[in-house]
């Protein structure tokens, strides 16, 4: 199945080269947001915001919620202020 993954900042390194900040990615059925991040080489530590189809995913649910064909997943780094 295919999902659209959008990222910002350093997380864009998880996307295929040349994708910019958005890419359509093939994922196995039953994948979770945390599983996808691990598969792409990212760290699952709960310090970032995950938004699945315009709804925030709680850190406690990143290994529970399953992705479906056509989903839009956004992965955003934590905001930093000064």
Strand order of the largest sheet: 2-1-5-3-4
- Indicate the CATH architecture: Roll
List SSEs in N-to-C order.
EEHEEE
| Strand element count | 5
Helix content: under 10%
Distance between the termini: 41 Å
Low-confidence stretches: none
Specify the structural class.
mainly beta
Q: Rg, please?
A: 12 Å
Mean pLDDT: 87
Oligomeric state, counting identical vs distinct chains: single chain
CATH superfamily: Beta-grasp domain
The best one-word shape is globular
How many domains? The number is 1
- The share of residues in extended strands comes to 25-35%
- CATH topology-level fold name: Ubiquitin-like (UB roll)
Quick one: CATH class?
A: Alpha Beta
Largest sheet: 5 strands, mixed
Helix tally?
1
Describe the structure in your own words:
With 82 residues, the chain is mainly beta. It has one domain (2-76): Ubiquitin-like (UB roll) (Roll), CATH 3.10.20. The protein has one helix spanning 33-39; strands at residues 2-7, 22-26, 49-52, 55-57, 72-76. A five-stranded mixed beta sheet has the order 2-1-5-3-4, with no helix packed on it. Strand 3 and strand 4 form a beta hairpin.
Secondary-structure blueprint:
Layout: E1 2-7, E2 22-26, H1 33-39, E3 49-52, E4 55-57, E5 72-76
Parallel strand pairs: 1-5
Antiparallel strand pairs: 1-2, 3-4, 3-5
List keywords for this structure.
mainly beta, Ubiquitin-like (UB roll), 5-stranded mixed beta sheet
